[in-house]
Structure to design on (262 residues):
């Protein structure tokens, strides 16, 4: 009876782990991390035995017992993820920003941002206005609303940037895997193997993957930041009444002129 209960517990645990892995498989960031890790292991194996994971043989099981090699692979992967890849991504992003700026300067209609005056939606107010009102009135509810908005916005920004970084990291790792496979005699890397398995459709699939990656990077790194506004109708009505006041408009124009002259 005890053995049966143990078997049921183990089966339930395995089923829960399987469901957890299946749920993670739908996460793009987790999938990109897995792609980078597998390709890095493929590169390490090609450099060690001249064969990739695609050419795995029973004799290669000895590699899993080589503690020194496994430790070196782990340290190299950690060093690459923590230092090498972030530096490369930073350089690529800076180069991309300069290229995007040059294109926006030369071709403003295609690459320039929308220069039309921004009109905030009804009920929405600039986030800093809500913060100032919360501090002025010492209103805990308004300040909590402001903090939740800022945290949500920062989380979305971080998630978007991480998606771009992981996408570029996966593409770069795949490129390195392909280059190393070309330099090793009779070596077949994961990228080579997948490309060959696709047959005649391989160029089309490659172009589609690169196009999707470019769209993700464009969305993650080169998307115009929208004005930061938060929904709070009472303050919005007050601000609109003030903005429609001619005296307030003249005062705003005078302050802007003084700042420009200064």
């Amino acid at each position: 009876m005890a053995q049966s209960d143990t078997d049921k517990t183990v089966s339930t645990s395995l089923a829960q782990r399987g469901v957890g892995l299946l749920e993670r498989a739908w996460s793009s960031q987790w999938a990109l991390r897995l792609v980078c890790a597998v390709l890095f292991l493929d590169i390490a194996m090609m450099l060690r035995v001249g064969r990739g994971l695609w050419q795995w043989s029973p004799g290669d099981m000895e590699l899993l017992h080589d503690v020194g090699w496994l430790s070196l692979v782990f340290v190299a992967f950690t060093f690459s993820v923590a230092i090498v890849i972030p530096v490369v991504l930073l350089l690529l992003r800076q180069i991309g920003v300069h290229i995007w700026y040059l294109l926006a300067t030369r071709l403003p209609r295609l690459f320039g941002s929308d220069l039309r005056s921004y009109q905030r939606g009804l009920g929405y107010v600039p986030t800093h206005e809500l913060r100032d009102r919360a501090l002025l009135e010492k209103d805990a509810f308004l300040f909590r609303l402001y903090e939740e908005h800022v945290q949500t916005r920062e989380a979305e920004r971080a998630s978007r940037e991480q998606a771009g970084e992981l996408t570029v990291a996966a593409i770069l790792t795949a490129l390195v895997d392909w280059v190393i496979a070309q330099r090793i005699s009779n070596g077949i890397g994961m990228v080579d193997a997948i490309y060959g398995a696709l047959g005649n459709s391989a160029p089309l699939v490659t172009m589609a993957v690169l196009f999707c990656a470019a769209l993700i990077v464009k969305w993650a790194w080169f998307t115009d930041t929208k004005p930061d506004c938060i929904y709070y109708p009472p303050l919005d009505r007050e601000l609109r009444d003030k903005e429609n006041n001619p005296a307030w408009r003249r005062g705003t124009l005078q302050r802007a002129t003084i700042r420009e002259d200064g």
